[in-house]
Amino acid sequence: MVKKYKFGKHFNTDAVVVDIKEDVAENLPYFRVLNVENEIVFKGLLSEGDRVYGLGENSGRLNRIGKIYINYNTDNSFHSLNSKSMYGSHNFFVLDGKTKYGFFFDSPGRVVFDMARTNRAVIDVSVQNAVTLYVLTGDTVYGIVKEFLQIIGKSFVPPLWAFGFMQSRWGYKNERDIREVVEGYKKAGIPIDSVCMDIDYMDRYMDFTVNKKRFPDLAGFVHDMKAQGIKLVPIIDAGVKAKKGYSVDDEGIKLGYFCLDKNGKPFEGAVWPGFAHFPDFLRPEVRKWFGEKFKFLTDMGLDGFWIDMNEPSIFFTRDDLKKFMYKFNKIPGEDGRYETKGVRTSNYKGFYHNADGINTVHHDVHNMYGYEMARSAGEYLNTLPQRYLLFSRSSYIGSHRYGGIWTGDNASNWENLEIFLKQLPSLNMCGLQYVGSDIGGFSLNTTRELLLRWLALGVFTPLMRNHAANTAKHQECYLFENLEDFRSVIGLRYMLLPYIYSEYVKAVLSGEPLVKPLAFMYSDDKIAVKCEDELMFGNEVIIAPFYKKGEKTRKVYLPEDMLQIDYAYGKLSETKVSKGEHLITADVGEVVFFIRDKKCIPIGVFCRNTEELDYDKLKLFGNGKEYKLYKDDGYTKNISKKNIVIMKK
Ligand code: GLC
Known about the structure:
Elements: E1 2-7, E2 31-36, E3 39-45, E4 51-54, E5 67-71, E6 88-89, E7 92-96, E8 100-106, E9 111-115, E10 122-128, E11 131-137, H1 141-151, E12 165-167, H2 175-188, E13 194-197, H3 218-227, E14 231-237, E15 240-241, H4 247-255, E16 269-271, E17 274-277, H5 284-292, H6 295-298, E18 304-308, E19 316-317, H7 318-324, E20 352-355, E21 358-361, H8 362-365, H9 369-381, E22 389-392, E23 395-396, E24 404-406, H10 414-428, E25 435-436, E26 438-439, H11 448-458, E27 464-466, H12 483-510, E28 515-517, H13 518-521, E29 535-537, E30 541-543, E31 553-558, E32 562-568, E33 571-577, E34 580-585, E35 590-596, E36 600-603, E37 619-622, E38 626-630, E39 644-648
Parallel strand pairs: 6-23, 12-13, 12-27, 13-14, 14-18, 18-22, 22-24, 24-25, 26-27
Antiparallel strand pairs: 1-11, 2-3, 3-10, 4-7, 5-9, 7-8, 8-11, 9-10, 15-17, 16-17, 16-19, 20-21, 28-29, 29-30, 30-35, 31-34, 32-33, 32-35, 36-37, 38-39
Helix pairs in contact: 5-9, 11-12
Bound molecules: alpha-D-glucopyranose (GLC).
Alpha-D-glucopyranose binds at residues 170, 198-199, 235, 308, 393, 408-409, 467.
């Protein structure tokens, strides 16, 4: 059951899509409410052994107890397990203990969750100004999560090719660079489906332009790549370069579609293109206007995009510049970097939206910006006859209806791999099913071992993308030694792809998270509920990723008798294992996973990309009798249970 309670002036975020009955604030269960200077504080008492799951992208443990999280979307690329703010804010969590609740703090501004960090017996949530609090109750936390997924609406489903392997790097400058990458993968025999185009493809980092010197005939190039089975995925940034004569900026100014500063002039902040204007995505007419600009790219045959810098990231404003008297270049150097030392600032109190006709300071609605940008793109892309791919850096609950996300700029270290392992299920239970991290790490230089272990987790991640910063050493898989390890791990992704795709779509259709903590399925198992580094993928599989440097053997806990699959170089071997603790061993080219008792999954054969997937070669593994396979042409918008076929052993 769900009830909602309003505190302060309600702001409509459209995160929840069904009508929920409002109850009077006095009836709010669990929390005591205090009004403290510009803040509303909710205090809830914990009992011994209570656990908390959720909070989406936040870094830290799966069980969120013991830390403070500040949900205020932030462009900060140095993450650790202690980081408090990330690129997206997802204010939903479930409390799992003697009493079970789900709470969604629907508030577009800053929300702070003190999960029994300051006081070991208290959860303390502080909200600025206003919140609509949704309270979900049920017998099991999994039931509560499923109910939450019902009220926020179905997740978007990208085309099948978006589940293939994707290569990206900030710094592929021209057609030749991209062709080289595709060649590199093909020669190495490593499967690949798509390549991302970072800001370098644009003319001076201006959205919806193409640098003609670098890409003389982008439409032709798109076509040519498609013929080779490769899709291109260009980036679009939130900030529109402030420049007279640039049609997107001219139009935005003329129509009054940009956010305003305190003097009522279009607000300017510096991002990659230099000073930029920020579309007021909170307004439907602005979303429509900006979204339709994608036609420039879709007309060239493109149907996959990533949208970025939409917290929004602002390096500095004109005022900052005056204050700091820093020297700077109007246009960043070839490598896209500014001399911004010391001047990077947020400045979120310095500009305004026209939200439902009310002048609203950005700070108060900050966490919605990336979400509304995704909505802008998604609403346009939804008018296309077939499915599209979209993933955003910043997000809020509701973003999942328009696209997926990646977890932003991480770093090439083991801690960042572990961070993602915990983000994945936490995001899925907040609706965001199509998620991924920069495999190998974005900044710093990756290592072969780290990349391979990250890829092995990537096999079970809907968005599987290797991406790196222009300052990092190249990390395309074909550049490393012993390529058979890369063929092996990425090859497994393709062998499992019919299963992965099927589980993804079935999760969307039935409103369940794709990846989940063991605690959701084995809630009575005292060891399983504490398990922090194993996950359930779909309804049949448990994964136990290797995420520590040098580790070739690790402990796993199996909550039931299972079938262990040891995979290496295209071959699978099966061993029956019993409930309890075990040690597993896997070298970097190998992957171990488990199939639940009385279940089975389809596994196919190695192929070079999704166009080559051969559904006729699927075989069922596991000791179940049948599997319900979702299968379609990979593009249709007609996603329905009718596309499920029963495979029998
Ligand atoms: C941001 C993005 C990163 C991208 C870079 C250049 O840092 O998070 O993925 O490569 O901008 O566009």
